[in-house]
Structure formats: C-alpha cells, structure tokens
Amino acid sequence: MKWIAEVPAAYQEDEVKWLLIEDDPDDTEGYYLYYLASLNPEFGFDTWHQTMAEAKKIGTTYGIELNDWQPYSPTVRP
Q1: N or C: which end of the chain has fewer CB within 10 A?
Q2: HEC profile for 29-76?
Q3: C-alpha span between 36 and 76 (Å, rounded)
Q4: Quick one: 20 exposed, middle or buried, by C-beta within 10 A (0-12, 13-18, 19+)?
Q5: Domain encompassing residue 23
Q6: pTM for this entry
Q7: pLDDT digits (tens, 9 = 90+) for 13-50
C-alpha cells in the first residue's frame, strides 16, 4: 500500500513537494519514503525505513502531521 502527503509550502526544500510511503513486504519488509518534486515518482529520491511509524516521523520534519497521510492510488490523486 502507498500513502502520500503534501509538504506545506513553508517546508518545501530542494523542490520536495510530496512525500510518498510505499511498503515493501516481499523484499526488504520495510518502507520506502519517496521525496518527490511532483507526483511523477521518476523525479525524486528515497530513503528506506524499518517501520511505517519511522517513515512518518521523517514527514514531521517537513511539516506533515500524522493525520495528513492519505492512501495513494495513481488513478485517484489528492
């Protein structure tokens, strides 16, 4: 499953406007946190985290509250 949150304008650095969390149950059993300049995942970078809570905690440094995360689908965008 994927979760997405928009970075508030006051926290947008290095063109990071969106954070996207994706679980990886089959390979690393962890979570990737993507730092995106747009909703196109080809433009950004990522970090790996052992838990969803750890990945979401990084989001707080970008001004994202825990309740800001929304389920993500490429066909239904926030």
Answers
A1: N
A2: CEEEEEEECCCCCCCEEEEEECCHHHHHHHHHCCCCCHHHCEECECCE
A3: 17
A4: buried
A5: 2-71
A6: 0.85
A7: 778 999 999 998 888 889 999 999 887 666 678 899 99
